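Sequence in, structure out.
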Amino acid sequence: MLRRSFIASALLAFAGLACAQPAKPVRIIVSFVPGGPVDFVARTIAEPLSKELGRTVIVENKPGANGAIGAQEVIRAEPDGSTIWITSVGAAAINPVLYDKLPYDMQRDFAPVSLVVNNVELLVVNPNDPARDAAEFVAAAKSKKEPITMASSGIGSIPHLAIEQLADATGARLLHVPYKGAAPAITDVMGGQVGGFFGDVPGLINQVKAGKVKALGIASNTRHPVLPDIRTLEEQGIRGVDTINWYALFVSSKTPPASVDALNKAVRNALATPALRERLLQSGADPMSSTPQELASLLRQDTDKWGRLIKAKNIRPE
């Protein structure tokens, strides 16, 4: 009898210890190197998300192959909601139509969780450029015999597609000059080697405030709260340049719906906190959550939109 009682007590104690084990950490996989804008957003939301989930949230960088390495890390992980992919619109909606073959399929392999931020594109030029706004920049481009050079962060990138949209919207002659990333492109704009650049506000906000580049217009239907004096392109009579480089969270498509819903709730609650919103806004990013269904719809819309432009312009990766 005593022995049975001892065994029962031991089993109960073991069960209690098992229950007391810390919860499995949540990993946010970033497909880019540390220090970039996606990495910044991931690390900014990690702590508030940890508080909402009651679990440790860590950020892991898996750069390379245009986002495919990070994507595959999530696909291979146990589909229990503990491994999340944060990605920009590029890897999610542009790469599937830009590249003939990818080792992942957004519809087959991933379940949407939520938007995190919207990054609008800002048209900037060298401070010595005489144009006071985008309308004057376009007028100057039309008056020149040679096309104005426009830098981008790479073929098929959001800055590249914004250039194509601006050319279509205005008839201006613009020569696309692709760079390997935004940093060298911005450097050459500041040095006057290229005429202009479309870039995410977070990547340009410091240079604009320091007077190293001149902001001419926002490619959005509303002005940016951190740059309230910069008019939108639409306000300047330029319509059809609608480039939003959103960042969003996805998990494996095999993840149980209940886990997806729990993650979505945690993300939405975290993004609603004033401190997190303010930090993201001051960086130039616009915090924006969504339901999984809304993100799925946005993914389909942008894949279709950018696919049409890429095919119409016959844009091919290097």
